[in-house]
Amino acid sequence: MKQVLADYSASISELKKNPTALLNEADGEAIAILNHNTPMAYLVPAETYELMMDMLDDYELTKLVESRRGDLSEAVEVDIDAL
To answer: CA-CA-CA-CA torsion for 50, 52, 56, 57, nearest 10 degrees?
Structure first.
């Protein structure tokens, strides 16, 4: 059995019946959508999804910066006064 990573859960049938009621009941929290008691999807508020995408972008940028920090052979010296 897979772990459910949300405090709220609903079946696909419940989601079809009244999605707005589910969202209101969860009050901004993620909802695990279950099929035969197995998580099939997570329903998250748009604000939460956007925050997650921003965090993923930041993570990817951090990986890029770290990889470039290790290779100083292509570093360019810059005079701060020239900027």
So the answer is: 20
